[in-house]
Structure to design on (167 residues):
C-alpha cells in the first residue's frame, strides 16, 4: 500500500491546471456526475444528463485539473452582470487531499482578477468541512446562512453557508 494520508499530504505537481478545452466537455461532466452521485458535497444530484450538461458547459469560464490525460477536477466561475462571480468546484474522490482543489481555486481567483471581477462568492453545505477549510485558507469569509434552502432528493432540507472573497 502506498503510504498516503488523504488530506494531509503536501501539494504535489502530479497534475496541471489549465483552461477547459472542447475535448474536456464529456470528461469534466463525467467527474461532475460522479461527485453528484455522492449526494453530499454539491447541490446537484443524479440523474445528470451527461450529453446535455457537457454540451451546455461554458468552457470560457471553466478551469480543469488534469493528471496525465485524465480530468481530475474542475472549477467554474459564473460571472454575474453585477461584477461578482459565483464558483462551483469538484475534485474526483480519489484525487482529493492532494492539492488539486487548492490549485483550481488559486487559478479561479487569478482568472477573476484578470476579468475584472470585484468579488467571488459561493454556497457550501455546513457539513462540508473540507470545502469550508479550503475556502477559508484562501481568505473566503462566511457571510450568512440560508436556512433549509436546498431540497434534496431524499426530501431533506439542507442549509447553505454563503461565503465571499473580495478581490
Ligand atoms: C472540496 C474539494 C473541492 C477540495 O478539493 P481537494 O483537492 O481535496 O483540496 P486540497 O487537497 O487542495 O485541500 C485544500 C484544503 O482543504 C482542507 N481539507 C482537505 N481535505 C480535508 C478534509 N478531509 N477535512 C478537512 N479539511 C480538508 C485543508 O485545509 C486543505 O489545505 P491544506 O492541505 O493546505 O491543509 C473536494 O473535497 C471535493 O471535490 N469535494 C466534493 C465536491 C465539493 O464538496 N465541492 C465543493 C462544493 S461547495
Amino acid at each position: 500500500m502506498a503510504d498516503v494520508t488523504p488530506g494531509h499530504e503536501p501539494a504535489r505537481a502530479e497534475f496541471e491546471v489549465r483552461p477547459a478545452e472542447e475535448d474536456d466537455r464529456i470528461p469534466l461532466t463525467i467527474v461532475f456526475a460522479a461527485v453528484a452521485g455522492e449526494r453530499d458535497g454539491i447541490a446537484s444530484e443524479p440523474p445528470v444528463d451527461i450529453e446535455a450538461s457537457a454540451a451546455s458547459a461554458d468552457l470560457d469560464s471553466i478551469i480543469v485539473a488534469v493528471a496525465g490525460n485524465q480530468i481530475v477536477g474542475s472549477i467554474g466561475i459564473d460571472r454575474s452582470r453585477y461584477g461578482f462571480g459565483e464558483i462551483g468546484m469538484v475534485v474526483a474522490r480519489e484525487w482529493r487531499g492532494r492539492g488539486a482543489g487548492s490549485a483550481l481555486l488559486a487559478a479561479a481567483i487569478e482568472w477573476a482578477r484578470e476579468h475584472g471581477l470585484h468579488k467571488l462568492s459561493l454556497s457550501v453545505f455546513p457539513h462540508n468541512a473540507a470545502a469550508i477549510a479550503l475556502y477559508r485558507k484562501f481568505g473566503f469569509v462566511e457571510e450568512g446562512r440560508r436556512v433549509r434552502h436546498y431540497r434534496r432528493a431524499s426530501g431533506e432540507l439542507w442549509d447553505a453557508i454563503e461565503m465571499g472573497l473580495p478581490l
About this structure: Residues 7, 35, 41-42, 89-91, 96-102, 122, 124, 128-131, 133-134, 137 surround coenzyme A (CB under 6 Å). The chain has four helices and seven strands. Residues 100-114 form the longest helix (15 residues). Strands lie at 16-19, 62-67, 70-79, 84-91, 119-124, 141-151, 157-166.
